[in-house]
Amino acid sequence: MATGSRTVRPRSSVWLSERKTPRRKGDQQPVGLDHLKIVAATMRLLDAEGLAGFSMRRLAAELGVTAMSVYWYVETKDHLLELALDAAMGEIALPIETVRSVEAAGPVEGPEYTPAEPRDWRDQLRQVASEYRRVLVRHPWLAALLGEYLNIGPNAVVFNHAALAVMRNSGLPDDRITSALALVYQFVYGFGTIEGRFAARCRAAGLTQDELYHEMMGTVADRIEFDEARKVMEARGGTTVQEMQDRDFTFALDLAIAGIESLKER
């Protein structure tokens, strides 16, 4: 896309970079550092301080090195955030049946899979969706990065292959698979993003989720315009915020699955 005389190019990706050696002459590999340590420290900082509080200088201080030592391993801050993004995707535990087709792609760092595996596509989809939600909530910064980068790292590739395999198992024709996945992805993304942001807000306020929820509800307790909404929220059940969220997520996902089944039968 051209803007005046300036050409705007797509953001480069760490997964497409050919950089293998440091750029500056005389640079020496820092002792005691490696990609795994740097990415793990990056994720800890992002979890604690969010994207707004993250910087290469802050990361270097966390690692006890200079900022240039970090740049020995990563070319840019964007590349480092891409690595953290893919590491988070690797925390998603997938149905082992769905990842066997991509084992030939090479070893991928991720969770260890449990022996008990759902085989029905509905249960597999529930596992994929629930795990995706869990990681979005655990890492509130992840949602923003998913909209910024290509997300083509090895863990993301395995996740996408697994999700495609699950949806193919549903019996949907190929020309409807991406639409069905979009339904599930966007639902989980939206649900997990809001849930994660609320949890982060509670941590910043020094309150539990239940404390902040009851405080917020108390501010509108006498407002008549909220009566209907309050009745519906009370009717859904659950004694804690987590129980309410789990009930909403489970039923909403069941609605999505029922919709996929209905369209498939047509």
From TrEMBL:
Keywords: DNA-binding, Transcription, Transcription regulation. GO terms for molecular function: DNA-binding transcription factor activity; transcription cis-regulatory region binding. This is TetR family transcriptional regulator. Residues 55-74 bind DNA. Residues 1-29 are annotated as: Disordered. Residues 32-92 form the HTH tetR-type domain. GO terms for biological process: negative regulation of DNA-templated transcription. It comes from Streptomyces antioxidans.
